[in-house]
Amino acid sequence: MIEFSDVTKVYDDGTTAVDDLSITAPTGKITVLVGPSGCGKTTTLRMVNRLIEPTRGKILLGGEDSGEIDRIQMRRRIGYVIQNAGLFPHQTVVDNICAVPYLNGVKRGEARRRAQELLTLVGLDETYAKRYPWQLSGGQQQRVGVARALAADPPYMLMDEPFSAVDPIVRKQLQQEFLRIQGDLAKTILMVTHDIDEALRLGDQIVVFSEGGVVAQSGSPAEILARPANRFVADFLGASRGYHALGFETIRGLDPQQTPTFTLGEPSAPAGEPWIVAIDHDHRPLGWVQPGRVSDRTRADDVQTATAVSLDSGSRRELLDAALASPGGSAILAHDDGTYAGTVHLDEVIRSAVDALGEERAAR
Ligand SMILES: Nc1ncnc2c1ncn2[C@@H]1O[C@H](COP(=O)(O)OP(=O)(O)OP(=O)(O)O)[C@@H](O)[C@H]1O
Question: What domains does the chain contain, in order, with CATH numbers?
């Protein structure tokens, strides 16, 4: 756990960057600090590892005052990832990853073996170990940055805009892999971003900062989306707030319609519907086909591919996206084992979302 207790930072020129901050980043969770430029996010983060000294207040790491922890100990306990990865340009990838373990006195062979494991963990094979940072793409550099921060197996991670230097597609990939890694490692993470989508995607807890280093609101993404504390937070969440909120609503209990199916290899399909669901021999949905156009020669390549939404763990937002992306306006659903569960039409998706909204308002 990282605890800020009445922490203030006033720079030498009189700028109050952080004002009387008291927040807690819970153990094993991702806490995201989000807010417009200049509102004190980076200052907050850097006070944790004492790159910046607080003017007043205390920061506790697992109950221990960070001001009293020896610097070398601190490096061991806190991984730090920054924008553009911040790799040492004249060192190979493997030496970048081993930098802190070497400082900690870990033997060369052991540090390098661990570095290889970490490279695999972040999705890079061993051929990258001998390269220099300039021989990597931006996304690959970010991966190495994450591997380097994990090298000393620190319980805490500070991440300052870790995925912002890459294009949106790579960024989404990195975010997904990061969540996968965090699912296994459960580090206590404090992350800074100015991107609300990233905050909502990654954060277990979000702290929204406003001008002058003041917390406008903190809570889970779902809480903040459902009940922004004030106009500033609502504006910051933007016009797509309702759509984002759907991402946190489950579809469990939904009763899908049994749209007919066509199993690949069969000579024909049941008529009556303009689009039906193509499934494989294991009863897994592949996408959509038109019944009049199929034959025993129809292959997976002839199917309009669709991603099925999990009936057990899917969200309303996934359902809406799937329905909008399909040729007939319906989302395909699958059971946990991947087998076909039915379909839901866009009209039903919207109607149930509106009903849920009504129920939530009535409960307030
Ligand atoms: N060394 C410094 N001396 C004086 N003022 C500073 C210093 N570093 C930062 N500031 C000011 O403190 C405030 C907070 O800066 P900080 O970098 O923490 O904000 P931020 O929310 O991380 O911004 P960004 O999203 O743009 O990185 C800003 O007004 C900034 O100009």
Answer: 2-248 (3.40.50.300), 261-354 (3.10.580.10)
